[in-house]
Amino acid sequence: MSLSFELLKFPPIITAVTWYTIVAFQVRRDRMRTWTEAFFLSGCFFVATYALSDFYFFQAGSEEQARLAAGLSLSSVTLASSFFLLFSKVYLGKMRYVYLIALVPAIIFIPFFFSRIFLPALFRQQASDPWIPQFEPSLFGLWAIVMGVPALLGLYYLFQTHRIVKGQNPRLGKRTAAIFGTLAAVVFSGLFTNALFGSVPSLQTIPPPFSSLLAIPGAMTLYALAPISRERVSEVLRRFRARQYELQGAFLVFNDGTVIASRGKEGTATVDRDIFAATLDVIQNFMRASFPLLRGTSLKTIEHGSHRILIERGRSCYLTLILDGEENDLLRRQMRDELLAFESANSQVLRKWRGLSSDAVGAEPLLDRLFQPSEAFGR
């Protein structure tokens, strides 16, 4: 028991550090603005907290401390599984508020994790041994389903994403295959160890591996996020998803309403850019003036039938797209990245803005890049 305990005692802290590093990396990159980014960030945070709770569980000196750590561990891994499902689903498609139902089972279970109903007993032979949790088998088995089903569905959607990436970029597909394979191995091994040890009474004397194995997909995730190559999974997927919409127009506007640059789809009726910008500004001011709760916020989307007007604000400017079809988080992310890069390159000009669009550099190429995905796929 002592050897197996020592092997399990310290790896959770490695897992926690790995996943908290991913969280810090995403926050530093401002990757928390869209639904997929928020779900990914939340999932990483709860995986890290799950591992940290396990580490605390192994260090617990009293039963009360062990119970608290066990409750935090179970709560965190359940929420991590739910957010993994939400991320993989929305990353592949479009966010719909009905998907948030995936969080309900996890929220319902959380109070039970800290009760003696779910965890009737904790024991250890001597002070140097680990605490061994003895769960109520039927409740633990039900929880394993609540945690396992979202994890398996998340793997399914992640595999669909891999297939898309592989079809568009076989070399990048090898990276997504490695990530999927590693994560699938960890999920299945976790379900057939932690869940089995907790739901079968005769096996509840064996300490499960807890979060130790999750350091592996954490390292793979860091590898995927690191800017080691110009080839990005999000870029490939964004170009693929561009087939779901048709860009009709794009406007880069200074905060005072001055249009810096605009572009419309060839062969379509052009929109007077100054009238469009002025009208949009009136609508936004009307919303803020009429609804006090909206003060401090900005309009993000206007829908009319299949047409949508998307608005993404920076510090000095805002970018507006008119499209026919479905928007997605990857397009939103591109809009924000392009806008922030433009503002950074023109910081001096925008700080002393004179209302002359010719003073700004890179506005036209910015709009060209927004039209490239649909053009690349023959739209």
What's this model, at a glance?
The protein is of the alpha+beta class.
Structure description:
The protein is α+β, with helices and mostly antiparallel strands and 379 residues long. It folds into 2 domains: 2-231, Rhodopsin 7-helix transmembrane proteins (Rhopdopsin 7-helix transmembrane proteins); 240-376, 2-Layer Sandwich (Beta-Lactamase), CATH 3.30.450.70. The chain has helices at 2-9, 11-28, 35-59, 63-92, 104-113, 137-168, 170-191, 194-199, 215-225, 233-241, 273-290, 329-345, 347-351, 363-376, and strands at residues 121-123, 132-134, 245-254, 259-264, 301-304, 307-313, 317-325. Strand 5 and strand 6 form a beta hairpin. Helix 7 (170-191) runs antiparallel to helix 9. Residues 374-379 have low confidence and may be disordered.
Descriptive key words:
single chain, 379 residues, alpha+beta, Rhopdopsin 7-helix transmembrane proteins, Beta-Lactamase, 2 domains, 5-stranded antiparallel beta sheet, two-stranded antiparallel sheet, 14 helices, 59% helix, disordered C terminus
